From TrEMBL:
GO cellular component: endoplasmic reticulum
InterPro entries: DnaJ-B11-like, DnaJ_C, HSP40/DnaJ_pept-bd
Annotated GO biological process: protein folding
A GO molecular-function annotation: unfolded protein binding
Stated name of the protein: Chaperone DnaJ C-terminal domain-containing protein
Signal peptide start and end residues: none
Domain Chaperone DnaJ C-terminal: 1-112
Pfam families: DnaJ_C
Gene3D superfamilies membership: Urease metallochaperone UreE, N-terminal domain (2.60.260.20)
Xref: CDD domains: DnaJ_C
Organism: Euroglyphus maynei (Mayne's house dust mite)
Length: 144
């Protein structure tokens, strides 16, 4: 059930004086989860990976709400903000429990902090990527 949905139980409420019991109505309110955000039947989460993992690929598991492990494998470069879909790993559909939504995983990349690279390390990185650094300025104004 989704947040704000109402469930009605016919004749399960408080009985009226000299009358039949009324209906009991429950309104579902969900608490925010620290890892997942629900939107309909879909779940969303963010995962932070290291710069090295973003460049060479990685494997990891995410613990789902029910405790099972969702395995993630990336064998290519993962850009900051990249999103992966895991079909069938979302929430069950209220009207058909055989259907599940999608789990969307958005990746953040953690860059090294506080460490200045030596000239030797800079040269090694340039050699690995075999490119000169090119500074590009883009402000979204299309040259106006």
């Amino acid at each position: 059930m989704e947040d704000g949905q109402e469930q009605r139980f016919i004749a399960e409420g408080e009985p009226h004086v000299d009358g039949e019991p009324g209906d009991l109505r429950l309104k579902i309110r969900t608490l925010p989860h620290p890892v997942f955000e629900r939107r309909g039947d879909d779940l969303y989460t963010n995962v932070t990976i290291s710069l090295v993992d973003s460049l060479i690929g990685f494997q990891m598991n995410i613990t789902h709400l029910d405790g099972h492990q969702v395995h993630i494998t990336r064998d290519k470069i993962t850009w900051p903000g990249a999103r992966m879909r895991k079909t069938g790993e979302g929430m069950p559909n209220y009207e058909n429990n055989n259907l599940h939504g999608i789990l969307y995983i958005t990746f953040d990349v953690e860059f090294p902090k506080g460490e200045q690279l030596s000239e030797e390390k800079r040269a090694q990185i340039k050699e690995i990527f075999k490119s000169e650094s090119k500074a590009h300025a883009y402000n979204g104004l299309r040259g106006y």
